[in-house]
Specification:
The structure holds 2 protein chains of 2 kinds. Helices cover about 80% and strands about 0% of the residues of chain A. By secondary structure, chain A is mainly alpha-helical. The longest helix of chain A is centred in the N-terminal third of the chain and has 30 residues, at about 15-45. By secondary structure, chain B is mostly helical. In chain B, about 20% of the residues are buried. Chain B: Its cofactor is heme.
Amino acid sequence: MIRARTFTDARAQSHTNAELNWWIFMRISGLILMFLILGHIYMTFIQVSESDATFDAVVNKLANPAWKFYDWLILSLSLLHGANGARYSIEDYVRSRPNRAWVKGVFYTVVALVFAFGTVGLFSI
Amino acid sequence: MCGRKAAPAKRPGKDVEEDLRMYRGREGQWAFLLHRLSGLAILAYLLLHVFSIGSFIFGERFYMTIHERYDLWPFRVGLVFVSAGVVYHAFNGLRIIIMDFTGFGVAYQRQMWYGVLLLSVAAFVYAAWTLYPRIMGGY
């Protein structure tokens, strides 16, 4: 449970190093994702109209290794950022220990499968 | 400076209920709640998005079958909310970072939040404007 509002608070409150590292990770990845995702939205949603995002357009774009890397960076950073954010919510709102274990187990499995699927998709083309 | 205060003895049932609202206050509480809700919504969108875009590895037919499902109106309207949600989450996240790492951040958190809200409304209007033909006419 993170309730810290400053870095000093975070360091004082986190009882493990891992928890403090996740706290820092959320800030750094969030800052990077801001550019990556707003750029992604601009390029695929505003610059190009949605109806142009056809099968061929996706395949052509991903043939370029630079876009592969860009998309894979978004994929991995956003899934880690999102999974950790959801973990905060689960830990705050799922109060019973066994339920929490189940919810986390199922959730992490889904995230891992989607990550594997996205990675295979990006690099198999 | 924040977090649980060492409160005087509370009734046990009440305890949990009060703990579930972390920031008891005005704008800060709503900023926090909206940040969580938008974050979870974006995560749900992201999981769907990776699956549907990634499905091109199964071939064009499979890919298009999924994408034609997105022609149902809730998905078309949902795009507007996702756009606004991403803008809210991104700029409120920036506000959190400013609060964490600068001296003046906490003092101006309320003003910054109204700025974030303004940007989100602008994003909502812009996305609705851009997507209007698609919301009305489909793909």
